[in-house]
Design brief:
The protein is α/β, with parallel strands linked by helices and about 300 residues long. About 40% of the residues lie in helices and about 20% in strands. It is built from eleven helices and 13 strands.
Length: about 300
């Protein structure tokens, strides 16, 4: 099978490329090659540098599967360059759909749990209402709708996966805007002071990268056309409990401060989140790595 992964040198995209290149011919589209070190078998993955907004039908010709991972990754662009979210998440998705409509490859679109906003009922499932709180998730939800419209209009196979908080080796460690949990692990291993919003008195769903990749591969291989899936561990964990686990595993005890979230975070941030993953489990997938084992593996990837 010929596979194209947009954003294919990003955290999730590269991990998926590593998984799929064992069995398939994989091409990744990337804005730059700086994430090439994430590829474990670089000779087995074709890297094409380019912007998804400028993708052409020739890029999609001969592809059996296109996995659209390319997107912005956080809420903060609205403060500096709001049009970046629109260009990447909306314009980029339209460009990809235009490029796909002739050859009609199977399309797997990666979305985010942020589209739900602060849910009134937990755990969230595929039928839960969406109410994005920031520009980033709003553009991701728009992109979902673009995909659905094009899929109906041009009759191609589409699946959508809304991922929860994905963490693990391969993510940026020293930037809290790109993987807050990985950043926390990095600081805890160094014994640095850590300030937690509300003392960590909130819960989230954290999914280890290997489990996320297997979920995506399962959807690509087995899911019926038109189906959407929430992809998470299904086991919410209190943030302060994660800190206790980190202290135990690192043997260091960072000074923990409790602070109120800044006004921006209070407007766009999600407090509590948990996911019902029964639908994707029905495809035969299940997460295998609990958060303690996931943290252990992530710490090991940091080196000494």
């Amino acid at each position: 099978m010929n596979v194209l992964i947009t954003g294919g040198l990003g955290f999730v995209g590269a991990a998926l490329a590593n998984r799929l290149c064992r069995e398939h011919r994989v091409t990744v589209l990337t804005r730059s090659e700086k994430g090439r070190s994430r590829l474990r078998e670089p000779d087995r993955v074709r890297v094409k540098v380019g912007q998804v907004e400028k993708i052409t039908p020739a890029d999609c010709a001969g592809m059996d599967l296109v996995v659209h991972c390319a997107s912005t990754v956080d809420n903060y662009n609205i403060l500096t360059d709001p049009y970046l979210d629109v260009r990447t998440n909306c314009d980029g998705t339209i460009a990809l759909l235009e490029a796909c409509k002739e050859h009609k490859p199977k399309l797997l679109f990666l979305s985010t749990f942020f589209v739900y906003g602060n849910p009134s009922k937990l755990p969230v499932d595929e039928e839960s209402p969406c109410a994005p709180l920031g520009l980033y998730p709003a553009t991701r939800l728009c992109a979902e709708h673009f995909c659905k419209i094009y899929s109906r209009l041009h009759a191609f196979h589409l699946n959508i996966c809304r991922l929860t908080n994905v963490y693990g080796p391969g993510e940026v460690f020293d930037n809290r805007k790109k993987g807050a949990f990985n950043h926390l692990i990095w600081k805890a291993k160094r014994g640095e002071p850590i300030d937690l919003y509300r003392g960590g008195d909130f819960f989230r769903d954290y999914l280890y990268i290997d489990d996320a990749v297997e979920a995506l591969a399962t959807v690509a291989e087995r899911a019926p056309a038109g189906e959407l899936y929430v992809v998470g561990s299904g086991e919410p964990v209190m943030f302060k409990d994660l800190m206790d686990c980190l202290h135990r595993l690192t043997g260091r005890k960072s000074a923990i401060g409790s602070i109120e979230p800044p006004q921006f975070h209070q407007v766009v941030g999600i407090r509590n989140f948990s996911a019902n993953v029964a639908k994707i489990k029905a495809l035969g997938w299940a997460p295998k790595v609990g958060y303690e084992e996931g943290i252990t593996r992530t710490l090991a990837s940091h080196g000494s």
